[in-house]
Write a structure and sequence with these properties.
heterodimer, A: mainly beta, 6-stranded mixed beta sheet, 4-stranded antiparallel beta sheet, 12 strands, B: mainly beta, 7-stranded mixed beta sheet, about 0% helix, about 50% strand
Chain lengths: ~110, ~110
C-alpha cells in the first residue's frame, strides 16, 4: 500500500533563513506527488506537484521541491522564509487505481520566528 | 465562482445526535471527497465520489454516509455522532476522474461531539 511519511512534525526557523521540509513516500510504479499548505483556520491549497519530467518542481510563494526516485523522497525547500509562511504543510501521493485519491502525510508545522 | 463551499463552519453535537455536513462546488467537477483531519494524523479519506450517483468508501468510512444526487453537492451524514468523530472535516473536488488535476479544498467544518 502507498504511504507518505513526513519526518518532522514541527520545524522552527528564523525569518529569512532557508528551510527544508522532508517527505518520504512508498509507492509502486507511477508516482505523482504533491505538497499542500494549510494556513491557520483555512483549507488546503496546492503549493506544487510532480507528475513527470524535471525532478525539480517550482511552486507558488517561492517554494520548490525535488523528486528523488532512488531515495523515494520529495523534500520541500525555500531559500528564505517569511513570517507569512507559518502554516502546516502536507505531502501527498496519488493513490493507486483510477480514482485519483490522495494519501496524505501527517503534516509538518512550519513556525517562522522574527 | 465560489469554488468549494462547506457549511456549517462550526458545530457542536451531543453523542447520538445526527447531522449533515454540506459541501458544494460550482466548478462542474466530477470527483468529490470528504476527509477528516486529526492532530498528528494528516488527512484521512472518509468517502469519495467519481460522479453523480457513484460513491465509494475511503480509509475511515465507519459512522458516515454519503450520497451524490447532483454533480454540485456531496453531503456527509453522521447518523449517530460519537466523541471519536470530533474532528475538522474537509470537502474537496477535482476535475476529471483518474487524472492528477489539482484538488480544491473547502474551508472546513470544525465538529465537536460531547
Amino acid at each position: 500500500a502507498q504511504s507518505v511519511t513526513q519526518l518532522d512534525s514541527q520545524v522552527p526557523v528564523f525569518e529569512e533563513a532557508p528551510v527544508e521540509l522532508r517527505c518520504n513516500y512508498s509507492s509502486s510504479v507511477s508516482v505523482y506527488l504533491f505538497w499542500y499548505v494549510q494556513y491557520p483556520n483555512q483549507g488546503l491549497q496546492l503549493l506544487l506537484k510532480y507528475l513527470s519530467g524535471s525532478t525539480l518542481v517550482k511552486g507558488i510563494n517561492g517554494f520548490e521541491a525535488e523528486f528523488n526516485k532512488s531515495q523515494t523522497s520529495f523534500h520541500l525547500r525555500k531559500p528564505s522564509v517569511h513570517i507569512s509562511d507559518t502554516a502546516e504543510y502536507f505531502c501527498a501521493v496519488k493513490g493507486s487505481g483510477n480514482t485519483g485519491k490522495l494519501i496524505f502525510g501527517q503534516g509538518t508545522t512550519l513556525q517562522v520566528k522574527p | 465562482n465560489a469554488g468549494v463551499t462547506q457549511t456549517p463552519k462550526f458545530q457542536v453535537l451531543k453523542t447520538g445526535q445526527s447531522m449533515t455536513l454540506q459541501c458544494a462546488q460550482d466548478m462542474n467537477h466530477e470527483y468529490m471527497s470528504w476527509y477528516r483531519q486529526d492532530p498528528g494524523m494528516g488527512l484521512r479519506l472518509i468517502h469519495y465520489s467519481v460522479g453523480a450517483g457513484i460513491t465509494d468508501q475511503g480509509e475511515v468510512p465507519n459512522g458516515y454516509n454519503v450520497s451524490r444526487s447532483t454533480t454540485e453537492d456531496f453531503p456527509l451524514r453522521l447518523l449517530s455522532a460519537a466523541p471519536s468523530q470530533t474532528s475538522v472535516y474537509f470537502c474537496a473536488s477535482r476535475g476529471t476522474r483518474g487524472s492528477t488535476d489539482t484538488q480544491y479544498f473547502g474551508p472546513g467544518t470544525r465538529l465537536t461531539v460531547l
